[in-house]
């Protein structure tokens, strides 16, 4: 097409040419087949629906309160240091991986090698992607305990892996806590087989908030050892543990260190989700497999962010166990918000499942007296139906405001 432009040289006619390949405009280019597994995303749809209906979106997992001042100050100082504005070591900025190793060594009961047993990623999401793509071959089966973080399935299928889902189920009717959910031992054992390459666990679990107890982790560990399977343990909510519950790292169980990659998140640990910095801890041979993928994606992670998170971890080292520890202050603050939200949902006629950890609450809405028409698009509902054996996801909104002072009726 043509466009006219006026300037110092007078009015000129310009030809604007679109790029073509084989007679077809790039606007009509076909996406690679691997992208089909992630073309639909429930969060994209929920965000759009929330904006369309002017609803308060309580589904996204990021804080609405300030990050700790020592983290913000550390990042400011790092950005002003010229030597920290260039590329750093691919496996992780030296100060960062050393801080991680020093802090976590006592928690694992072993001396972690910061140079070979820790590596930095662009968020825990990056850790998940690199672990799966670095270890799973096409046709390999990977056990996933549901409900699960929504990235596991598409990332696994993109690698050619085959997911084998095992559900967490309530132990009885009328459950009120995430601790009342567990997996069927026979179902989990049946999910393992000769093609099993790995299992992905998430504790505390997103979205249920369940913390796997020692007996449950021992069952998983025994199956991993029996079938020579790797365990990818997503522990990003490791500090968000409530009511005196204990977070147990599966890598600390007998025979599990050598077959486990444990994933952590600076965003979840320090309430800086926008920094997108994660890390993985594990044996050197598994770490290398995962890191080899990162090299071909981003090669390294932002140096100033790693420097700032290193300062944050060093702060926690100095304050370990004290009231000044952010890892202690954060759950103490969030448990009050959890209890408040649980109370509100109960008042509205829902039946919330009180989470032991994390920052999500799952609620049973079946008791609502006047359900509204479902608003989830048929396209996504069909997608969910297909993936979960005919069980549909039914989303029903209510016009009753959760917080009248914020949401207009």
Low-confidence stretches: 1-6, 13-25, 375-409
Q: Order of SSEs, N→C?
A: EEEEHHHEHEHEEHEHEEHEHHHEEH
Structural class: alpha/beta
C-alpha geometry: globular
DSSP summary: helix tally: 12
Mean pLDDT across every amino acid position: 86
Percent of residues in helices? 25-40%
Rg computed from alpha carbons, rounded to a whole number of angstroms: 24 Å
Work out the number of β strands: 14
Kindly report the spatial arrangement of strands forming the biggest sheet: 5-12-11-10-9-6-7-8
- Cα distance, first to last residue? 50 Å
The biggest beta sheet reads: 8 strands, mixed
Q: What amount of the residues lies in strands?
A: 15-25%
Task: Spell out the blueprint of helices and strands.
Blueprint: E1 2-5, E2 12-15, E3 20-21, E4 24-25, H1 42-52, H2 69-80, H3 94-108, E5 118-121, H4 123-135, E6 141-146, H5 152-158, E7 162-170, E8 181-183, H6 185-191, E9 196-202, H7 214-226, E10 230-234, E11 260-265, H8 266-270, E12 278-281, H9 284-295, H10 303-318, H11 326-347, E13 351-353, E14 362-364, H12 378-387
Parallel strand pairs: 6-7, 6-9, 9-10, 10-11
Antiparallel strand pairs: 1-2, 3-4, 5-12, 7-8, 11-12, 13-14
Helix pairs in contact: 2-10, 3-10, 4-5, 4-9
